[in-house]
Amino acid sequence: MTTMKINQFSGYRSPCKFLSYLPAIIMLCLMTGEAMANRKTDIIYLKNGDRITGEFKELIQGELKLSTAEMGSIFIKWEGIARIESDKYIELELLDGTRIFGKLLPDLDTGEEILSIKTLKEDPFEIKINEVVRAEQIRVEDSFWDRLDGHLKLGLNYTQASDVLTWNFDGNARYRTQNHLTSLSFDSNRTRKGDGIDTSRHNLAGSRYWYLTNRWFYFGSIGAQQNEELGLDLRASVTAGGGRFLVQSQKTELYLATGLSANKEKETGDDDSNSDLSDAGANLELLLSADYTFFRLYSPKSRIKFSPTLWQGITDSDRLRGNLNLSLRQEFISDLFWDLSFYYDYDSKPLQGAAAKEDFGIVTSLGYEF
Questions:
Q1: Cα separation of 91 and 100, whole Å?
Q2: What is the DSSP-derived secondary structure letter of residue 74?
Q3: How far is 295 from 247, CA to CA, in rounded Å?
Q4: Which residues lie closer than 8 Å to 10 by C-beta, 6 or more apart?
Q5: Which domain holds residue 71?
Q6: Band of residue 180 on the pLDDT scale cut at 50, 70, 90
Q7: pLDDT-derived band of residue 41, with 50, 70 and 90 as boundaries?
Q8: What are phi and psi of 367, to 5 degrees?
Q9: CA 89, 183, 208, 303: dihedral to nearest 10 degrees?
Q10: Does a cis peptide bond (omega within 30 degrees of 0) precede residue 300?
Q11: 152, 169, 245, 256: which sits with the fewest CB atoms below 10 Å from its CB?
Q12: CA 74 to CA 66: how far, in whole Å?
């Protein structure tokens, strides 16, 4: 990683210093919710004749997560399920991108591998169980805190030869309804070198997705970033756009998205008298992004995620920014995972306080899904 230019203003206080404290703040907020027990009355009929009672959580990566009273959370191979009965609202995603919201009714006349669904507006109808690639319980009657899910990751790396200590803390929280997904995510990296020079990189983003028919969606987001290597003390941005899932299966997911992003920036080294973002002109950029995820089914479950993003300047057509994130995650105990991540940031016209045009790093961490 390149060396950071030392800030010459000894009394300077960054207006975005709060970003370094946000992980702890968000974690405290997430811990304030008190979960309430849900009824474990869903019935899973297996092809071998067994029957298991519990609470339907979600279908992802080819496995159904079921919460039971005696065994805790267990995972059942989707291909081994004959049928399901549930009095809770479930959103199902089919191979063709269709989304169905309703309850899974008991039906003695239904054959194996058939689900009987009752939606809010239509009479019950049937679908083949092998057409379902993803499913999730939408807890419409639960409190806000009970409907949150997400993850937290913490990583710490030390290299004795170069006397470099790096720590990383990131996570996200998601709130899902029938047609919307609202999320808040953060990512904080700090590097301390043997010569006493610290560099940091912080990202905070809030977004909302609206899901449409035939795998289309549109979204809006706000964000704040800091990267001392690129001379960026604060970038505040607003983005809106749309996209489409090109592939959705139990093993693979791929979507493309585009939109417009407006942001204002403040470079490192500015004193307090020049710290107001409103003094700078807004940058308008064209956003192009992709997200590819590959799942390894069953135990041990693993996931590879590749997310490149480009911002092509419109107000400054000579400027091109890019970001790439690549991660490998493997679960070793239920809800606990190990993660290896690589990030790369590029700016063809960095701000004046930048030490380089690019910044990159590798982070190993342990995480927990809630």
A1: 6
A2: E
A3: 13
A4: none
A5: 42-137
A6: confident
A7: confident
A8: -140, 165
A9: -80
A10: yes
A11: 256
A12: 5
